[in-house]
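TA notes, week 10

Several of you asked for a full example with nothing omitted. So below is the full record: structure tokens for the whole chain, then the designed sequence directly under it. When grading your own attempts, check the secondary structure regions first.
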């Protein structure tokens, strides 16, 4: 007669069979790193903020995967407005820097319409679930809205890493035309997001209806 316990088989004193040990490897819980998107200047160039954000995230990813590369994922994010151009340029930079095929398999591309949609889409990627920690690299003034939005989806697993960057005069986003406009946009998004959390679904539908009219 033998008795079973988690991971180890223990024979009784009447058994002559040598003890057999086995260990079931638990699936690795993903560590996620996100480089927030900040647009392109043209078909060949990322904006300064986008490149800085990617560089910091890539450096963090390289350091992290030295010990946990099997479960550390880098999310290349972009917005739908540029039809995937930012993600394409970012992937090209990563592939020029990293030559390990196994590591490149840990790249995840996610495109969305805005920060709220981006957090929702990342939270639905099965490969990244369940998240152990999610580190988001974000432009300093954009952090006020991004932190609230991602905190809603990822809770205590969220870590925010801020970077300072100035937007180019020819940046394609009108909200980046001045520092005031960009800061105001992010505070407005933060306030709107907080209000949406407190409003019922019926009220949100009415507001959308009023704006459509």
């Amino acid at each position: 007669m033998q008795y079973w316990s988690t991971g180890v088989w223990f024979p009784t004193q009447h058994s002559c069979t040598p003890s057999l040990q086995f260990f079931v490897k638990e699936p690795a819980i993903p560590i996620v790193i996100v480089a927030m998107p900040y647009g392109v200047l043209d078909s060949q160039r990322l904006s300064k903020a986008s490149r800085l954000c990617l560089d910091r995230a890539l450096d963090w990813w390289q350091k992290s995967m030295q010990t946990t590369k099997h479960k550390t994922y880098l999310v290349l994010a972009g917005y739908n407005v540029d039809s995937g151009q930012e993600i394409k340029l970012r992937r090209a930079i990563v592939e020029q820097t990293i030559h390990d095929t196994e590591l490149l398999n840990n790249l995840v591309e996610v495109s969305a319409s805005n920060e709220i949609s981006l957090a929702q889409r990342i939270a639905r990627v099965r490969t990244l679930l369940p998240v152990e920690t999610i580190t988001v690299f974000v432009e300093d003034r954009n952090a006020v809205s991004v932190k609230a939005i991602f905190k809603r989806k990822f809770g205590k697993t969220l870590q925010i890493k801020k970077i300072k960057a100035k937007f180019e005069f020819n940046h394609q986003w009108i909200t980046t035309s001045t520092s005031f406009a960009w800061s105001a946009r992010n505070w407005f998004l933060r306030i709107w997001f907080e209000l949406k959390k407190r409003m019922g679904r019926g009220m949100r539908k009415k507001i959308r209806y009023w704006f459509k009219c």
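The longest strand covers residues 72-79. Use that as a sanity check on your answer.
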